[in-house]
Write a structure and sequence with these properties.
globular; NADH Oxidase; alpha+beta
């Protein structure tokens, strides 16, 4: 139905069906007006009682992005379980898994190659389920808006391994909680159809079975 492309799209369904994870970026900076369009789209998401419990940190400064990259590299190299996970994935017979994990590891080591990194933060609500249900619709809006504008993104939780470092580097208060780390930029590769389970496998009509 949809083909590979590097272009933006005005089609809502094309954006959804071709919003592939992008882990390699061109060095070209993303204009502030495009970043603001993406972020404004994020803020149009629904949230519980319309509390809008979010703040989006946009890291463009090269030195700060480099510091994040170095911290991620140190974290992964010192964490035996994570290192084993990525190394075993790189040897997997499953080509899709192999490409995903090698790409994710390369991204973690060189996240500063993305011209900007967005860190959505939950600013209220300590309950993980309720808090997530309020901020992740905004994150999805962000990802789809970026795709529509021809910008690549990938949703990662790399922030979990370097939470303390991020707080110190970016002045994040204790009451706020980073929920993701999203590199954004012009893709060095194509958008294209995503592979997912057939919808029939995950839908139950009038009941579980």
């Amino acid at each position: 139905m949809y083909t590979s492309s590097r272009e933006g799209t005005d089609s809502f369904f094309e954006a959804i069906y071709t919003q592939r994870a992008i882990r390699r970026f061109k060095p070209d900076p993303v204009p502030d007006d495009l970043l603001l369009r993406v972020l404004e789209a994020a803020t149009k998401a629904p949230s519980g009682s319309n509390q809008q419990p979010w703040r989006f940190l946009v890291v463009r400064d090269a030195a700060k992005r480099k510091a994040m990259s170095e911290a991620l590299k140190a974290h992964l190299q010192s964490n035996e379980a994570m290192r084993t996970y990525f190394e075993s994935g790189a040897q997997s017979d499953d080509r899709s898994k192999r490409l995903m994990l090698t790409g994710a590891l390369e991204l973690a080591y060189h996240i500063d190659a993305a011209p900007a990194v967005i860190i959505p933060c939950l600013t209220s609500g300590s309950d993980r389920l309720l808090g997530g249900s309020s901020i992740y619709p905004a994150v999805q809006n962000l990802l789809l808006a970026a795709r529509a504008l021809g910008l690549g993104t990938v949703l990662t939780t790399f922030n979990m391994g370097i939470d303390g470092m991020l707080r110190e580097l970016l002045g994040i208060p204790e009451a706020a909680r980073p929920v993701a780390l999203i590199p954004i930029g012009y893709p060095d590769g194509n958008f294209g159809p995503t592979r997912r389970k057939p919808v029939e496998e995950v839908v139950g009509w009038d009941g579980w079975d």
